[in-house]
Design a protein that fits this description.
Helices cover 43% and strands 27% of the residues. By secondary structure, it is α+β, with helices and mostly antiparallel strands. Strands 1-2-3-4-5-12-6-11-10-9-8-7 form a 12-stranded mixed β-sheet. It is globular and about 60 Å long.
Length: 350
């Protein structure tokens, strides 16, 4: 184990095939770690995807995905609108990997980095804190599906969950495959409406939904559905799956249709889809407030914690400030020289 830790290094993973092979060997089933997804989100967020790997000798033993965003001279990594953007790496390698990440962060001027670990990750909090990370626990909500039929899932729901599904059916909510317009334009509009009520910008750029449609529409790993009421779109949702784990990634609804329980109809359709995919669980991705948490729990979801760690690398920040200062001076040098010539000319005239 000591030799494994001491010989580790960070390097770029050269191909998507090698990345995916390592991910599968690690037993990772989180869609958000897929090569194609990370490329998509890098484009949507205006970030740069760094496909970093942790190598022991020539062997790739873990993944360290980085989505890097540049703000002038400053860079941040993995501040993204979806969870679990952290290392996919054996727990015994974590200490040495964090040291390598620290060195990489400093060399490349990344001032802020966030590592968000999936619920099943092998992570020692003490090791993170030892490397200067501030660590806190967030939570998501996961519905266990292993060994269950649709009737079994319904039986585990609360009375409120079953009532919401039946109410949506009685009110004529129809779940259909979403169209391109509903995914790429309507869904982002729904999100903007929700966040605008809170005085906030939407979490996802519209480009994310557009790219998701372009890349995953018609794919067995994605479900894009809409709830219609009397021919009008009331809610839209995108689900993703990778082997045994499904994710309810992105959804929205119009406020005027809230009383129809369109979201309940979409959740039930998503659960049934996950069962058909052979998934053993579906992650409902987050619980930002108690109301949403209670709603998701009504479908039989359980609260599951996961770790989020972030740190500021002061050397990287100082490097960025220094580089910015040098660049500013270089840009201003012609103006400074021109001003000195003007002063010399004025003095000569006097």
């Amino acid at each position: 184990m000591q030799d494994l830790q001491r010989s580790g290094r960070i390097g770029r993973v050269p191909s998507g095939a090698e990345w995916e092979s390592c991910r599968v060997l690690q037993g990772d089933e989180v869609f958000f770690h897929r090569w194609d997804w990370l490329q998509l989100m890098a484009e949507a967020l205006g970030s740069h995807f760094l496909p970093l790997g942790y190598y022991v000798g020539p062997k790739l033993v873990g993944l360290i995905p980085m989505l890097v965003k540049q703000y002038g001279p400053y860079k941040s990594a993995n501040w993204v609108p979806f969870p679990y953007m952290g290392p996919v790496i054996p727990g015994k390698c974590l200490r040495e990997a964090l040291l390598a990440i620290d060195q990489y962060q400093a060399r490349n001027g990344i001032g802020l980095v966030q590592l968000c670990f999936s619920p099943g990750a092998d992570v020692d909090v003490a090791v993170l804190e030892e490397r200067g990370y501030k660590v806190y626990r967030d939570k998501t909500l996961i519905i266990p599906l292993a060994g269950l039929s649709e009737d079994g899932v319904l039986a585990r729901m609360t009375p409120r969950g079953r009532k919401n599904i039946k109410q949506a059916q009685r009110r004529g909510v129809e779940v259909v495959e979403a169209s391109r317009d509903e995914v790429a334009r309507v869904l982002p509009g729904m999100e903007r409406e929700v966040f605008a009520r809170q005085g906030l910008p939407p979490a996802n750029p519209q480009r994310a939904a557009e790219l998701a449609w372009e890349r995953y529409s018609g794919s067995p790993c994605a479900q894009m559905i809409a709830a219609h009421i009397a021919g009008k779109v009331a809610a839209v949702s995108i689900g993703l799956s990778d082997r045994s784990l499904a994710l309810a990634w992105y959804g929205g609804s119009w406020a005027e249709f809230r009383s129809f329980n369109a979201h309940a109809a979409l959740y039930w359709s998503r659960i049934r889809w996950a069962l058909r995919q052979g998934c053993s669980a579906i992650d409902l991705v987050g619980a930002p407030n108690q109301g949403i948490s209670d709603f998701k729990k009504s479908f039989g979801a359980l609260e599951v914690p996961y770790l989020v760690a972030n740190r500021s690398n002061f050397r990287a920040a100082a490097w960025a400030r220094s580089a910015h200062g040098c660049l500013t001076k270089a840009r201003n040098l012609p103006n400074w020289r021109r001003r000195m010539r003007e002063i010399d000319s004025q003095q000569a005239q006097v």
